[in-house]
Write a structure and sequence with these properties.
The chain is of the alpha/beta class and 202 residues long. It has seven helices and seven strands. It has helices at 33-42, 55-68, 91-98, 110-113, 120-129, 145-153, 191-200; strands spanning 2-12, 15-18, 21-25, 80-86, 135-139, 159-169, 172-183. Helix 2 (55-68) packs parallel to helix 5 (120-129) and helix 6 (145-153) runs antiparallel to helix 7. The longest helix is centred in the first third of the chain and has 14 residues, at 55-68. The radius of gyration is 17 Å and the shape is globular.
Amino acid sequence: MQHKIIKYCSIRNDTVTVDGKVVLKTVEQPGTSKQFKEIFQSLGIDYPKFYKMDMLSKLAFLAFEFLTHDSGIAISETKTAILLSNRHSTIDDDIKYSATITDQNYFPNPALFIYTLPNVMIGEISIRKNIKGETLFISSNGFSGTAFENCLDSMIFENCLTGFVEYENGDNFEAFAVFLEKSEYSGNNSLNFELERLYNNR
C-alpha cells in the first residue's frame, strides 16, 4: 500500500501557503502571539481554547486548520492518524517552566507543565478534530521524509495528518503540515521524495 499526498500547508516567517500558493501575508511580527492571533482570525472560526494554548500548539493548530477548514477533507474519528515531528521538542515551554522553579520560590507552574510534553500539540488537534486514531510524535535533527515514511509504514490508518512543527522561539519557527491517505497508487515518486520536495520548495 502506498501513500498519496492530498494537501499540504506551510507557515514560515510572515507567510502562509496552501498547496504552494500564498493564502496569507501577515502584518504582525512573525513568531509572536499577535501574529498567530492574526492567522487564527483570518480563518473566521470560533474556538476560544486556541488562546489558552502554548505557541507550539497554536502553530500546529493553525497549520492543520488550514488543511482541513472548508476543504472537504474527510476526517475519521478512528481511521485518521496523526504523526508529528520537530527538532527542539517543547524548548520554549521548558525554559518558561524552568523559570518558575527557584530556590527562593520553589513552586513549578502546573499550567505550564502540561505544555512541556510535545504530544500535547497532537492532543489539541485531536480534540479539535475529534480524532481517536493512532498518534505518534518523533524527535529528529530536522525534517526527514524517510523518517516520516518509515513511521507511517508501521501505523494503521486510512488517512493521516502529518508534518514538522517547530517553535524554538520567535526567531526560529515553522510548520509544514500534510494530509495524506493510503492508496493503491501514489505516483512515480516515493513518499519520502515527495515530502522532501514539497518541504524544500516552500
